[in-house]
Design goal:
Number of strands: 0
Largest sheet: none
CATH topology of the largest domain: Helicase, Ruva Protein, domain 3
Structural class: mainly alpha
Helix content: 55-70%
CATH superfamily of the largest domain: Cytochrome C biogenesis protein
Shape: elongated
Number of helices: 6
CATH architecture of the largest domain: Orthogonal Bundle
Length: 158
């Protein structure tokens, strides 16, 4: 009975997460504008939350940005104009996919540079191991005898 109560309580708790979802409706004059609104609102980052887009954020600034986005779409602004306005006001950070520029070059090139550094490190490590094995050469008679003694001692111990 106690387990059943715990499971029911957990289910109610999980269902309550939807209550925190953003519920805002805007009337659009064209279904295409609504589609553009949804696409742009998922592409713009909430300046306060930083890890959520404005479509999912409950922050007051996200509400303002969604309202502004709706107004600009209805006024006839295209996507680039809207994004340029948001960037001029909040900086390139407001975009999840910032444009390639001198300031954002490190964001775009860092994964490629890290991959190249990793490949170079792996190649150098493998080459150094190969050269160490080749430099060692064949064992001398004394080394072979010592190795055989050690191997024999190991076999006797087991």
């Amino acid at each position: 009975m106690r387990l059943l109560l715990q499971v029911a309580l957990l289910c109610l708790l999980l269902l309550s997460f939807n209550a925190r979802a953003v519920i805002e409706t805007y009337e659009f004059s064209d279904p295409e504008l609504e589609q553009r609104y949804r696409q742009l609102s998922t592409e713009l980052r909430c300046p306060k939350c930083q890890n959520q887009n404005i479509a999912d954020s409950n922050a007051p600034i996200s509400q303002d940005l969604r309202k502004l986005l709706h107004q600009q779409l209805e006024a006839g602004a295209d996507d680039d104009e809207i994004l340029d306005y948001m960037v001029s006001r909040y900086g390139e950070f407001v975009r999840y996919r910032p444009r390639f520029s001198g300031a954002t070059a490190i964001l775009w090139l860092a994964p490629l540079l890290l991959l190249l550094v990793g490949i170079a490190a792996a190649v150098l490590t493998l080459r150094s191991r190969r050269s160490q094995r080749q430099a060692a050469g064949p064992l001398s008679r004394d080394d072979e005898q010592r190795l055989q003694d050690l191997l024999g001692k190991t076999e006797k111990d087991s």
